[in-house]
Amino acid sequence: MRVVVAEDVMLTREGIVHVLAEAGIEVVAEAADLHSLLRTVHTRLPDAAVVDIRMPPTQTNEGVVAARKIKETMPEVAVLVLSQFLDSGYAMEVLENHPEGTGYLLKDRIFDGAVLVDALKRVVEGETVVDPTIVTKLLGRRRPQGPLESLTSREREVLSVVAEGLSNRGIAERLMVTERTVEAHITSVFLKLGLDGSPDSHRRVLAVLTFLRS
Fold this sequence. Notes:
- By secondary structure, the chain is α/β, with parallel strands linked by helices.
- Helix content is about 50%, strand content about 15%.
- A six-stranded parallel sheet has the order 2-1-3-4-5-6, sandwiched between helices.
């Protein structure tokens, strides 16, 4: 896997690069601001970009802008946005328009090599990945009547783990059930959310977006 790392704080950037290198992932370039990131992605053609949500020139939402521009012009490049903010709104900004091959992780996760590498692999495979802490926050808030109201508590639990980007096997291990049980729950979720006419990979992405919006 070939990756570009974009982070304006040098020590943090070096830490990310070190974690990826330890996992055998090739970091083909580094960037410290939005413009150099976009230029580097278009010249180096990586498999993925790991992007801080706040970088120069404005230190506001450069990661959101970068994710959108990269996915619009090079949809085959996966984007994993890192943020220190526990805000589902930021996650939605990143994922709403181009969820396939896009992820949002809190920065607390980045020095756990297994978590960071797993998230990268999943977005490169075209999946949508949302930080588990944000998923937990969304599960805990009170919602108005919406599409998720038709789901059972178990189906919501399964959907929340789908939002984290886990495979059916990973969900089964997390919930201590069989893969067949997971498949049945996911099929039921798709049907109840009206997502029964698309390939499974696309339906998973649409189901995650429904979860985030609700």
